[in-house]
Amino acid sequence: MATFVITKRLNGEYKYELTSRKGKTIFTSNSFELRFECEEHILHLQASIEKLIFMRFRSGNGKFFFRIILDDKQIAVSRKYSTQLLLQKGIDEFVKYGVLAEILDFSSDEDIFATFE
Questions:
Q1: What is the pLDDT of residues 29-71, one digit of tens each?
Q2: CA nearest 42: which of 74, 77, 5?
Q3: Per-state percent for the chain, helix, strand, coil, to nearest 5
Q4: At a CB cut-off of 8 Å and minimum separation 6, what does 3 contact?
Q5: Which long-range contacts (CB under 8 A, 24 or more apart) does 103-111 make?
Q6: Using CA atoms, how far apart are residues 117 and 114, in angstroms rounded to an integer?
Q7: In this structure, are strands 3-8 and 102-105 parallel, antiparallel, or unpaired?
Q8: Checking phi first, is residue 39 left (phi over 0); if not, alpha (psi -120 to 50) or beta?
Q9: Which Gene3D superfamilies match (predicted)?
Q10: Structure pTM?
C-alpha cells in the first residue's frame, strides 16, 4: 500500500510525497510553510480523488510525468517515468491506494536512530 511521507525541505518548508509499496516516490507536493498544512492537504486530497485532474507531459529528454490539478491549482508533480505504461501505473496506484494510505511524519529534527550510551 502507498504511504504519504511528510519531510522538511532544506529551506525549512514542508512537503509530502506519496511513495509506493516498494518505496519509490510517485509524486511530490508543493511546499508548505507549516507541517499541519501538509496533513490537512493530504486529507483534502484523499477526500477529493474523484475531482483530480492528471495532466500528462513528456520532458525534453523523453521521460513522462504528470501533474495533479485540484480546483484549478497544481498541487503535485510526479517523478519521471520511462514509459507511458509506467506513468499510468503510477496514477492507478494513487487512485487505488491513495485513500487508504497512511501518513508518516519524518519532518522533525530529532535523530530517530540516535545511539544510546
A1: 999 999 999 999 999 999 999 999 999 999 999 999 999 999 8
A2: 5
A3: 25, 35, 40
A4: 18, 19, 101, 102, 103, 104
A5: 103/3, 103/4, 103/6, 103/16, 103/39, 103/42, 104/3, 104/4, 104/5, 104/6, 105/6, 105/35, 106/5, 106/6, 106/7, 107/6, 107/7, 107/8, 107/14, 107/35, 107/38, 109/8
A6: 10
A7: parallel
A8: alpha
A9: 2.30.29.80
A10: 0.84
Place of cell 507549516: 34
